[in-house]
Specification:
Blueprint lengths: L1 E3 L11 H14 L12 E3 L13 H14 L1
Parallel strand pairs: 1-2
């Protein structure tokens, strides 16, 4: 489950699909041995997004989101 706990972040709706895709890939693929991750909840507290839309594409959002979720 991903919970948006941010306040006043611009462009957050632009990356919602990419964050959801990253979450699905992490929960299906697991962290260490490709096991399914269950009973996990991620809170998005703060996001700093570039004003230029080319820097908010799936290729720019999914990899760091996956690394952050795996590190948590």
């Amino acid at each position: 489950m991903i919970l948006d706990d941010t306040k006043g972040v611009q462009y957050l709706q632009d990356i919602k699909d990419s964050v959801t895709t990253a979450f699905q890939e992490v929960t299906q693929g697991g962290v260490l041995a490709e096991e399914t991750l269950s009973n996990a909840c991620f809170f998005i507290k703060d996001v700093k997004l570039h004003a230029d839309s080319i820097h908010r594409g799936a290729g720019q959002i999914i990899p760091p989101t996956k690394r952050t979720m795996k590190a948590a």
